[in-house]
Amino acid sequence: MKNEYLEEWIQNAALIHHEINELFDGLSEDQLNNKPSPQKWSIGEQLEHLMVSNTLYFPKLKAIAAGKHKNPSAARFTYLPQFFGKSILKAVQPDNEKKLKTSRKFLPDQKHHTLQLKDKFSRHQDELIELVKNTNHIDHKKAIITSPANRLIFYYLEDAIKIILAHERRHIHQAQQLLDKKQAVA
């Protein structure tokens, strides 16, 4: 692979399928939709949020794969994409317990989720992996994209791809904690 980190990233992104299957093993729809408080998301909302967030990157990944991407003009300040990328990547790590406020664009739908959400997420993850693979022909340390949340924030494609996976792990970890708390009470 042109981008050396990508092989490991793809393997880790594929492991998300296993983690979701474990999370859903024996899960009821009530557990999937249970909100511990009005301010906290249910497991279903956690997964929906990941799909909403990731999907906002899809047009950028498709443009890069098609050779139609141009770095933003502000990217000439090379310290900025590095600063933004590293800062966001650090913030979305699963072990970062600090609560983050999400952009409105990333909010999950307020609906009742069914257990079919597992299959929907699985298809979504497959599409994400394929889109990322399709960008391998360019140098991820030189391509710079804007954040789907704010066009004034931009970072290297490598950081964006790492952010996506760390963000997924963070919310799967949070969903698992919700389930663990529920089982501890039962």
UniProtKB/TrEMBL annotation:
InterPro entries: DinB-like, DinB/YfiT-like. It holds the Pfam family DinB_2. Residues 18-175 form the DinB-like domain. This is DinB family protein. SUPFAM superfamilies: DinB/YfiT-like putative metalloenzymes.
